[in-house]
Protein backbone atom coordinates (compact mmCIF):
# COMPACT_ATOMS: atom_id res chain seq x y z
CA UNK A 1 0.00 0.00 0.00
CA UNK A 2 2.81 2.35 0.92
CA UNK A 3 4.62 1.47 -2.34
CA UNK A 4 1.46 2.26 -4.28
CA UNK A 5 1.10 5.58 -2.51
CA UNK A 6 4.70 6.49 -3.28
CA UNK A 7 4.27 5.41 -6.91
CA UNK A 8 1.12 7.48 -7.22
CA UNK A 9 2.90 10.51 -5.76
CA UNK A 10 5.76 10.14 -8.22
CA UNK A 11 3.37 9.78 -11.14
CA UNK A 12 1.41 12.82 -9.99
CA UNK A 13 4.61 14.87 -9.75
CA UNK A 14 5.68 13.78 -13.22
CA UNK A 15 2.25 14.68 -14.60
CA UNK A 16 2.36 18.15 -13.04
CA UNK A 17 5.87 18.64 -14.41
CA UNK A 18 4.82 17.54 -17.89
CA UNK A 19 1.80 19.84 -17.89
CA UNK A 20 3.95 22.70 -16.63
CA UNK A 21 6.54 22.16 -19.35
CA UNK A 22 3.97 21.80 -22.09
CA UNK A 23 2.31 25.02 -20.96
CA UNK A 24 5.54 26.99 -20.74
CA UNK A 25 4.65 29.23 -23.66
CA UNK A 26 3.30 32.62 -24.62
CA UNK A 27 0.54 32.89 -27.21
CA UNK A 28 0.91 36.07 -29.27
CA UNK A 29 -1.66 37.40 -31.76
CA UNK A 30 0.03 40.08 -33.85
CA UNK A 31 -0.09 41.77 -37.23
CA UNK A 32 1.57 40.05 -40.18
CA UNK A 33 5.21 41.10 -40.71
CA UNK A 34 5.39 42.68 -37.27
CA UNK A 35 7.38 40.32 -35.04
CA UNK A 36 11.13 39.98 -35.71
CA UNK A 37 12.24 36.33 -35.36
CA UNK A 38 15.52 37.34 -33.72
CA UNK A 39 13.69 39.19 -30.95
CA UNK A 40 11.40 36.22 -30.33
CA UNK A 41 14.36 33.82 -30.24
CA UNK A 42 16.15 35.97 -27.65
CA UNK A 43 13.04 36.13 -25.45
CA UNK A 44 12.55 32.36 -25.71
CA UNK A 45 16.17 31.69 -24.78
CA UNK A 46 16.27 34.11 -21.86
CA UNK A 47 13.05 32.87 -20.27
CA UNK A 48 13.22 29.26 -21.45
CA UNK A 49 9.78 29.46 -23.05
CA UNK A 50 8.17 28.96 -26.42
CA UNK A 51 6.39 31.82 -28.18
CA UNK A 52 3.54 30.81 -30.46
CA UNK A 53 2.56 33.50 -32.96
CA UNK A 54 -0.66 33.81 -34.90
CA UNK A 55 -1.11 36.69 -37.34
CA UNK A 56 -3.85 38.94 -38.71
CA UNK A 57 -4.02 41.46 -41.55
CA UNK A 58 -6.44 44.04 -40.11
CA UNK A 59 -7.95 45.22 -36.84
CA UNK A 60 -11.34 44.06 -38.06
CA UNK A 61 -10.06 40.53 -38.64
CA UNK A 62 -8.46 40.42 -35.19
CA UNK A 63 -11.51 41.82 -33.41
CA UNK A 64 -13.99 39.59 -35.22
CA UNK A 65 -11.96 36.48 -34.41
CA UNK A 66 -11.69 37.35 -30.73
CA UNK A 67 -15.37 38.28 -30.44
CA UNK A 68 -16.40 35.05 -32.17
CA UNK A 69 -14.91 33.10 -29.28
CA UNK A 70 -11.30 32.40 -30.24
CA UNK A 71 -9.42 32.02 -26.98
CA UNK A 72 -5.97 31.02 -25.89
CA UNK A 73 -4.10 34.19 -26.86
CA UNK A 74 -2.19 36.09 -24.20
CA UNK A 75 -1.10 39.28 -25.98
CA UNK A 76 -2.71 41.16 -28.86
CA UNK A 77 -1.56 44.31 -30.74
CA UNK A 78 -4.60 46.42 -31.69
CA UNK A 79 -4.45 49.96 -33.05
CA UNK A 80 -5.72 52.88 -30.99
CA UNK A 81 -9.35 52.86 -32.16
CA UNK A 82 -9.72 49.19 -31.31
CA UNK A 83 -7.85 49.60 -28.03
CA UNK A 84 -10.55 52.01 -26.87
CA UNK A 85 -13.34 49.75 -28.15
CA UNK A 86 -11.86 46.68 -26.47
CA UNK A 87 -11.23 48.53 -23.20
CA UNK A 88 -14.87 49.58 -23.15
CA UNK A 89 -15.92 45.99 -23.77
CA UNK A 90 -13.72 44.70 -20.92
CA UNK A 91 -11.57 42.55 -23.20
CA UNK A 92 -8.23 43.29 -21.49
CA UNK A 93 -6.51 42.58 -18.21
CA UNK A 94 -5.13 45.57 -16.34
CA UNK A 95 -1.41 46.17 -16.79
CA UNK A 96 0.67 45.71 -13.62
CA UNK A 97 3.16 48.50 -14.22
CA UNK A 98 5.38 47.33 -11.35
CA UNK A 99 6.29 44.35 -13.56
CA UNK A 100 7.34 46.53 -16.49
CA UNK A 101 10.16 48.88 -15.40
CA UNK A 102 10.99 49.68 -19.04
CA UNK A 103 7.81 51.71 -19.34
CA UNK A 104 10.07 54.62 -18.39
CA UNK A 105 11.57 54.41 -21.89
CA UNK A 106 8.34 55.25 -23.73
CA UNK A 107 8.26 58.67 -25.41
CA UNK A 108 5.88 61.05 -23.57
CA UNK A 109 4.90 62.51 -26.96
CA UNK A 110 3.43 59.14 -27.89
CA UNK A 111 1.65 58.83 -24.55
CA UNK A 112 0.11 62.28 -25.05
CA UNK A 113 -1.51 60.94 -28.20
CA UNK A 114 -2.97 57.91 -26.42
CA UNK A 115 -5.80 59.88 -24.87
CA UNK A 116 -7.85 56.67 -24.73
CA UNK A 117 -5.38 55.14 -22.20
CA UNK A 118 -2.57 57.61 -21.49
CA UNK A 119 -1.86 56.05 -18.06
CA UNK A 120 -1.25 52.65 -19.71
CA UNK A 121 -3.81 50.90 -17.56
CA UNK A 122 -4.63 48.43 -20.34
CA UNK A 123 -2.23 49.10 -23.21
CA UNK A 124 1.48 49.75 -23.76
CA UNK A 125 2.51 51.46 -27.02
CA UNK A 126 4.38 49.19 -29.42
CA UNK A 127 4.83 51.43 -32.43
CA UNK A 128 3.64 54.79 -33.77
CA UNK A 129 3.53 54.84 -37.54
CA UNK A 130 1.43 55.21 -40.67
CA UNK A 131 0.71 53.42 -43.92
CA UNK A 132 2.01 55.17 -47.00
CA UNK A 133 2.55 54.63 -50.70
CA UNK A 134 5.26 52.59 -52.41
CA UNK A 135 6.10 53.31 -56.04
CA UNK A 136 8.26 51.35 -58.47
CA UNK A 137 10.00 54.27 -60.18
CA UNK A 138 11.36 51.94 -62.83
CA UNK A 139 7.78 51.60 -64.05
CA UNK A 140 6.40 54.93 -62.81
CA UNK A 141 9.16 57.53 -63.14
CA UNK A 142 6.90 60.57 -62.75
CA UNK A 143 4.32 60.91 -60.01
CA UNK A 144 2.90 63.31 -57.47
CA UNK A 145 3.44 62.50 -53.81
CA UNK A 146 -0.25 62.51 -53.05
CA UNK A 147 -3.17 60.15 -52.60
CA UNK A 148 -4.26 61.44 -56.00
CA UNK A 149 -1.89 58.89 -57.57
CA UNK A 150 -4.68 56.33 -57.26
CA UNK A 151 -6.75 58.43 -59.65
CA UNK A 152 -4.30 57.84 -62.50
CA UNK A 153 -6.00 55.89 -65.26
CA UNK A 154 -2.68 55.17 -66.98
CA UNK A 155 -1.78 52.93 -64.02
CA UNK A 156 -5.05 51.01 -64.07
CA UNK A 157 -4.59 47.37 -63.09
CA UNK A 158 -1.19 48.03 -61.53
CA UNK A 159 -2.22 49.47 -58.17
CA UNK A 160 -3.68 48.23 -54.89
CA UNK A 161 -4.97 49.81 -51.71
CA UNK A 162 -5.40 48.18 -48.32
CA UNK A 163 -8.48 46.15 -47.57
CA UNK A 164 -9.07 48.34 -44.52
CA UNK A 165 -12.02 50.71 -44.39
CA UNK A 166 -10.51 53.20 -41.91
CA UNK A 167 -7.26 53.42 -43.88
CA UNK A 168 -8.77 53.89 -47.33
CA UNK A 169 -11.66 56.06 -46.18
CA UNK A 170 -9.17 58.05 -44.10
CA UNK A 171 -6.95 58.63 -47.15
CA UNK A 172 -9.91 59.94 -49.14
CA UNK A 173 -11.13 62.14 -46.29
CA UNK A 174 -7.70 63.73 -45.80
CA UNK A 175 -7.30 64.24 -49.55
CA UNK A 176 -10.60 66.13 -49.51
CA UNK A 177 -9.51 68.25 -46.55
CA UNK A 178 -11.57 66.46 -43.89
CA UNK A 179 -10.69 64.68 -40.64
CA UNK A 180 -10.16 60.91 -40.65
CA UNK A 181 -12.53 60.89 -37.66
CA UNK A 182 -15.35 62.98 -39.12
CA UNK A 183 -18.94 62.18 -38.16
CA UNK A 184 -20.33 64.37 -40.94
CA UNK A 185 -22.44 62.23 -43.34
CA UNK A 186 -21.81 64.59 -46.27
CA UNK A 187 -18.03 64.33 -45.84
CA UNK A 188 -18.18 60.54 -45.52
CA UNK A 189 -20.28 60.34 -48.68
CA UNK A 190 -17.84 62.59 -50.52
CA UNK A 191 -14.98 60.26 -49.56
CA UNK A 192 -17.03 57.24 -50.68
CA UNK A 193 -17.71 58.87 -54.05
CA UNK A 194 -14.03 59.75 -54.55
CA UNK A 195 -13.01 56.15 -53.92
CA UNK A 196 -15.78 54.65 -56.07
CA UNK A 197 -15.51 57.04 -59.00
CA UNK A 198 -11.81 57.93 -59.18
CA UNK A 199 -9.71 55.39 -57.27
CA UNK A 200 -11.39 51.98 -57.31
CA UNK A 201 -11.65 51.74 -61.15
CA UNK A 202 -7.83 51.87 -61.31
CA UNK A 203 -7.16 49.29 -58.59
CA UNK A 204 -6.46 45.62 -59.15
CA UNK A 205 -7.98 44.97 -55.74
CA UNK A 206 -8.17 45.99 -52.11
CA UNK A 207 -5.49 43.88 -50.45
CA UNK A 208 -4.06 43.81 -46.94
CA UNK A 209 -2.28 40.46 -47.21
CA UNK A 210 -0.43 39.89 -50.49
CA UNK A 211 0.37 43.40 -51.75
CA UNK A 212 4.02 42.98 -50.73
CA UNK A 213 4.45 39.80 -52.75
CA UNK A 214 2.53 41.29 -55.68
CA UNK A 215 4.79 44.34 -55.66
CA UNK A 216 7.90 42.18 -55.43
CA UNK A 217 6.97 40.02 -58.41
CA UNK A 218 6.13 43.05 -60.58
CA UNK A 219 2.38 42.53 -60.66
CA UNK A 220 1.80 45.87 -58.89
CA UNK A 221 3.70 49.12 -59.44
CA UNK A 222 1.98 51.31 -56.85
CA UNK A 223 0.65 50.02 -53.53
CA UNK A 224 -0.78 51.62 -50.44
CA UNK A 225 0.59 49.79 -47.44
CA UNK A 226 3.25 49.39 -44.81
CA UNK A 227 6.87 49.91 -45.82
CA UNK A 228 8.11 46.94 -43.81
CA UNK A 229 5.85 44.52 -45.67
CA UNK A 230 7.17 45.49 -49.10
CA UNK A 231 10.83 45.91 -48.16
CA UNK A 232 10.89 42.51 -46.50
CA UNK A 233 9.72 41.01 -49.80
CA UNK A 234 12.16 42.86 -52.07
CA UNK A 235 15.35 42.62 -50.02
CA UNK A 236 17.81 40.81 -52.27
CA UNK A 237 16.47 42.40 -55.43
CA UNK A 238 19.00 45.22 -55.70
CA UNK A 239 17.39 46.86 -58.73
CA UNK A 240 13.92 46.93 -57.21
CA UNK A 241 15.33 48.22 -53.94
CA UNK A 242 16.91 51.12 -55.83
CA UNK A 243 13.74 51.78 -57.82
CA UNK A 244 11.36 51.72 -54.84
CA UNK A 245 10.25 54.97 -53.25
CA UNK A 246 8.17 55.03 -50.09
CA UNK A 247 6.40 58.17 -48.90
CA UNK A 248 3.61 59.35 -46.65
CA UNK A 249 1.81 62.13 -48.55
CA UNK A 250 2.53 65.59 -47.08
CA UNK A 251 -1.24 66.16 -47.02
CA UNK A 252 -1.35 63.61 -44.20
CA UNK A 253 -3.38 60.48 -43.72
CA UNK A 254 -4.44 58.07 -41.00
CA UNK A 255 -1.81 57.32 -38.39
CA UNK A 256 -1.75 54.51 -35.86
CA UNK A 257 -0.36 53.58 -32.49
CA UNK A 258 -0.34 49.82 -32.11
CA UNK A 259 -0.19 48.67 -28.50
CA UNK A 260 0.53 45.52 -26.56
CA UNK A 261 -2.50 44.42 -24.55
CA UNK A 262 -3.03 41.39 -22.34
CA UNK A 263 -6.32 39.69 -23.14
CA UNK A 264 -8.90 39.04 -20.47
CA UNK A 265 -8.45 35.51 -19.12
CA UNK A 266 -4.89 35.16 -20.46
CA UNK A 267 -3.28 32.03 -19.01
CA UNK A 268 0.24 33.44 -18.98
CA UNK A 269 -0.14 36.94 -17.57
CA UNK A 270 3.18 37.06 -15.76
CA UNK A 271 5.02 35.96 -18.90
CA UNK A 272 3.04 38.49 -20.93
CA UNK A 273 4.28 41.28 -18.65
CA UNK A 274 7.84 40.02 -19.09
CA UNK A 275 7.40 40.08 -22.86
CA UNK A 276 6.18 43.70 -22.85
CA UNK A 277 9.07 44.72 -20.63
CA UNK A 278 11.51 42.83 -22.89
CA UNK A 279 10.25 44.62 -26.01
CA UNK A 280 10.94 48.01 -24.42
CA UNK A 281 14.52 47.30 -23.50
CA UNK A 282 16.33 49.91 -25.59
CA UNK A 283 18.61 47.46 -27.41
CA UNK A 284 15.70 45.07 -28.12
CA UNK A 285 13.40 47.83 -29.32
CA UNK A 286 16.20 49.07 -31.59
CA UNK A 287 16.59 45.54 -32.97
CA UNK A 288 12.84 45.45 -33.67
CA UNK A 289 13.06 48.78 -35.49
CA UNK A 290 16.21 47.87 -37.42
CA UNK A 291 14.59 44.66 -38.66
CA UNK A 292 11.76 46.63 -40.28
CA UNK A 293 13.58 49.85 -41.15
CA UNK A 294 11.53 51.80 -38.60
CA UNK A 295 12.52 54.95 -36.72
CA UNK A 296 12.28 54.29 -32.97
CA UNK A 297 9.12 56.35 -32.54
CA UNK A 298 7.92 54.97 -29.21
CA UNK A 299 11.13 54.36 -27.24
CA UNK A 300 13.54 57.23 -26.59
CA UNK A 301 16.69 55.38 -25.38
CA UNK A 302 16.41 52.92 -28.28
CA UNK A 303 17.24 55.69 -30.75
CA UNK A 304 20.93 55.59 -29.85
CA UNK A 305 21.05 51.87 -30.68
CA UNK A 306 19.54 52.09 -34.18
CA UNK A 307 22.10 50.80 -36.69
CA UNK A 308 20.40 50.41 -40.06
CA UNK A 309 18.64 52.79 -42.44
CA UNK A 310 15.01 53.71 -41.83
CA UNK A 311 12.46 53.83 -44.64
CA UNK A 312 11.03 57.07 -43.27
CA UNK A 313 11.62 59.47 -40.41
CA UNK A 314 9.50 60.26 -37.38
CA UNK A 315 8.85 63.76 -38.76
CA UNK A 316 7.21 62.18 -41.83
CA UNK A 317 4.25 61.08 -39.72
CA UNK A 318 3.74 64.37 -37.88
CA UNK A 319 0.92 65.39 -40.25
CA UNK A 320 -0.94 62.10 -39.86
CA UNK A 321 -4.04 61.90 -37.70
CA UNK A 322 -4.77 59.01 -35.36
CA UNK A 323 -7.93 57.07 -36.06
CA UNK A 324 -10.16 57.03 -33.01
CA UNK A 325 -13.23 55.06 -32.02
CA UNK A 326 -16.09 56.53 -34.07
CA UNK A 327 -18.89 55.32 -31.84
CA UNK A 328 -22.23 55.28 -33.61
CA UNK A 329 -20.72 57.06 -36.62
CA UNK A 330 -18.91 53.83 -37.48
CA UNK A 331 -22.16 52.66 -39.04
CA UNK A 332 -21.85 55.43 -41.63
CA UNK A 333 -18.37 54.17 -42.55
CA UNK A 334 -19.51 50.54 -42.59
CA UNK A 335 -22.37 51.43 -44.89
CA UNK A 336 -20.09 53.34 -47.26
CA UNK A 337 -17.48 50.57 -47.29
CA UNK A 338 -19.44 47.33 -47.25
CA UNK A 339 -22.62 48.39 -49.01
CA UNK A 340 -21.02 50.58 -51.67
CA UNK A 341 -17.26 50.47 -52.13
CA UNK A 342 -16.89 46.74 -51.46
CA UNK A 343 -20.38 45.70 -52.57
CA UNK A 344 -20.14 42.83 -55.00
CA UNK A 345 -16.40 42.21 -54.46
What are the defining features of this structure?
single chain, six-stranded mixed beta sheet, about 350 residues, 2 domains, five-stranded mixed beta sheet, globular, disordered N terminus, 13 helices, D-Maltodextrin-Binding Protein, domain 2, about 15% strand
Question: What features would you describe in this structure?
Answer:
Residues 1-22 have low confidence and may be disordered. It is globular and about 55 Å long. The chain has 2 domains: 25-128 and 255-313, 3-Layer(aba) Sandwich (D-Maltodextrin-Binding Protein, domain 2), CATH 3.40.190.10; 130-253 and 321-341, Periplasmic binding protein-like II (D-Maltodextrin-Binding Protein, domain 2, 3-Layer(aba) Sandwich). With 345 residues, the protein is of the alpha/beta class. Strands 1, 2, 3, 4, 10 and 11 form a 6-stranded mixed sheet that branches. Helix 6 (165-175) packs across helix 7. It has helices spanning 2-22, 37-47, 59-67, 80-88, 108-113, 165-175, 185-199, 211-216, 227-234, 238-243, 269-279, 282-292, 330-341; strands at 25-31, 50-56, 75-76, 124-130, 132-136, 159-161, 203-206, 222-225, 244-247, 254-262, 321-322.
Amino acid sequence: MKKNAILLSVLAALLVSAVSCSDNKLNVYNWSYYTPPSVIEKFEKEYNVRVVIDEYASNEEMYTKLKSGSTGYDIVFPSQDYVSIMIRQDMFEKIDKTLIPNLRNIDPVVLQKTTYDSDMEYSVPYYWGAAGILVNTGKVPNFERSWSIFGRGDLRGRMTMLDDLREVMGDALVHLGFSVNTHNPAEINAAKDLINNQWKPNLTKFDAESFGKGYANGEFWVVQGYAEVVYEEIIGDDQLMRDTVYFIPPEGGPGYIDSMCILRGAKHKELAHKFIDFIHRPEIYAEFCDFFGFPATANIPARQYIEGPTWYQAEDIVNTELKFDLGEALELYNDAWFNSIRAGD
